[in-house]
């Protein structure tokens, strides 16, 4: 636990006072010019490390989380942060990192990621490389007494750093809201022409009908008007008639030896139970 003086030190060291919002006259996009560029990155390993560093920025009209490393980062690599609550956030590199004296990769800062950085502690980080010859780099976060511990690399310092930068973005760009992650839908909401495969029984003779219909309830009533002894035993819907016909055909083939006529079959109790289970 940090004392009051240490927290005050971190607040001063990562102060964003004096930062300004500037506009690119050519593109019309905004970015923040931070008060002290030398204090903009925070080390995720330990004092004077050449390991992974990260920073919060506002550039080209959006808040971003940036990671930089002296070792080469490239498309296909992935940076992962592990937190003390067990949560892992992966940052797969999909865009070529910017090369200066370090390799820098930027990611849109989402609301969920910001909340995790503000309320959880980073336990370790991992850099996984696309190249099979390079082993993943896993680094445990420094703590009190490790590597000449310094308060500005503590968990509290990281939270203060993130909070100060987010507060500054909110102050300078009040209309900007951190986006929330959206879960990609694996299936679009199509308007399917639903079709049903059904199993009916004629109680007067014990025969069963395996058929398909777009309106099975209407089909049942139609048959009941001819023979009141008919009842529906099972019915399952499929997104297209083509699929329903394939299922119906498979059932007809499976019980072809018991066909009486057309779609009517002489089935025993085991057959009936198996079809009902299929059409659940």
Describe the overall structure:
- This protein has 280 residues and is α+β, with helices and mostly antiparallel strands.
- It has 2 domains: 4-172, Sandwich (Immunoglobulin-like), CATH 2.60.40; 195-278.
- The chain is built from 6 helices and 16 strands.
- The chain has helices at residues 4-13, 111-119, 155-172, 216-226, 241-254, 269-278; strands at residues 20-23, 30-33, 42-43, 53-59, 62-69, 78-83, 88-92, 98-99, 103-108, 122-128, 137-140, 195-202, 207-213, 230-238, 259-261, 264-265.
- Strands 3-4-5-9-8 form a 5-stranded antiparallel beta sheet. Strands 14-12-13-16-15 form a 5-stranded antiparallel beta sheet, sandwiched between helices.
- Strand 1 and strand 2 (30-33) form a beta hairpin.
- The two termini are 58 Å apart.
- The model is unreliable at 144-149 (pLDDT under 50).
């Amino acid at each position: 636990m940090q004392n009051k003086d240490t927290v005050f030190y971190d607040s001063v060291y990562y102060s964003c006072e004096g930062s300004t919002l500037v506009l690119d006259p050519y593109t019309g996009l905004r970015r923040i010019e931070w008060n002290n560029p030398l204090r903009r990155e925070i080390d995720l390993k330990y004092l004077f490390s050449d390991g992974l560093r990260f920073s919060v920025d506002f550039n080209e009209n959006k808040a971003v989380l940036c990671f930089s490393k002296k070792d080469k980062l490239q498309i296909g690599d992935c940076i992962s942060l592990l937190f003390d609550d067990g949560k892992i956030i992966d940052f797969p590199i999909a865009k070529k990192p910017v090369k200066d004296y370090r390799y820098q990769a930027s990611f849109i800062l989402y609301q969920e990621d910001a909340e995790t950085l503000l309320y959880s502690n980073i336990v370790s980080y991992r850099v996984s490389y696309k190249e099979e010859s390079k082993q993943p780099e896993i680094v445990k976060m420094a703590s009190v007494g490790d590597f000449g511990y310094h308060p500005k690399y503590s968990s509290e310092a990281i939270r203060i750093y993130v909070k100060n930068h987010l507060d500054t973005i909110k102050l300078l760009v009040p209309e900007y809201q951190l986006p929330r992650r959206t879960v990609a839908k694996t299936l679009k909401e199509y308007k399917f022409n639903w079709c049903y495969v059904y199993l009916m029984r004629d109680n007067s003779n014990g025969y069963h009908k395996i058929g398909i219909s777009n309106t099975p309830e209407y089909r049942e009533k139609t048959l009941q008007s001819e023979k009141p002894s008919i009842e529906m035993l099972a019915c399952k819907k499929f997104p297209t008639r083509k699929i329903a016909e394939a299922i119906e055909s498979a059932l007809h083939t499976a019980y072809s030896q018991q066909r009486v006529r057309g779609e009517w079959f002489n089935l025993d109790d085991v057959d009936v139970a198996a079809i009902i289970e299929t059409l659940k």
